[in-house]
């Protein structure tokens, strides 16, 4: 019986792994071999979810940009310490 794969979850895992590699070793560390080794899968399974390493890096970049935008929006209502900001007069 074929294995059922949650493609969205798998893509998210690959993006997370790529971000960890970038944080630890720089953007140059993100290639099919390093990502597949870090996730314990074959490089071929990587290509089932992303057509190229560039697409994987783009997905990782998009996640970072969305997270930063969310933080900025959320921080607008709260201070850096998490307490509500006071309105200046």
Would you kindly provide a written description of the structure presented here, covering whatever features stand out?
With 89 residues, the chain is mostly helical. It has a single domain, classed as Homeodomain-like (Arc Repressor Mutant, subunit A), CATH 1.10.10.60. Helices cover 64% and strands 0% of the residues. The protein is globular, with a radius of gyration of 18 Å. It starts with 6 loop residues before the first helix and ends in a 12-residue tail after the last helix. The model has no long low-confidence stretch (mean pLDDT 82).
CATH architecture verdict: Orthogonal Bundle
Task: Tell the overall outline.
Answer: globular
Biggest pleated-sheet summary: none
Please tally the β strands and state the result. Answer: 0
List segments where confidence is low: pLDDT < 50 over at least 5 consecutive residues.
none
CATH superfamily, please?
Homeodomain-like
Per the CATH scheme, the topology name is: Arc Repressor Mutant, subunit A
- Ends distance: 67 Å
Q: Classify the beta-strand content into a percent band.
A: under 5%
- Total number of helices: 4
Mean pLDDT: 82
From the alpha-carbon coordinates, what is the Rg to the nearest angstrom?
A: 18 Å
């Amino acid at each position: 019986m074929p294995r059922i794969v949650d493609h969205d979850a798998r893509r998210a895992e690959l993006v997370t792994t790529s971000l960890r590699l970038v944080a630890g070793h720089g953007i140059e560390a993100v290639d099919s071999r390093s990502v597949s080794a870090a996730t314990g899968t074959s490089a071929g399974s990587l290509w089932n979810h992303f057509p190229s390493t560039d697409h994987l890096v783009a997905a990782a970049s998009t996640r970072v940009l969305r997270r930063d935008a969310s933080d900025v929006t959320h921080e607008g209502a709260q201070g850096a310490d998490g307490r509500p900001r006071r309105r200046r007069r």
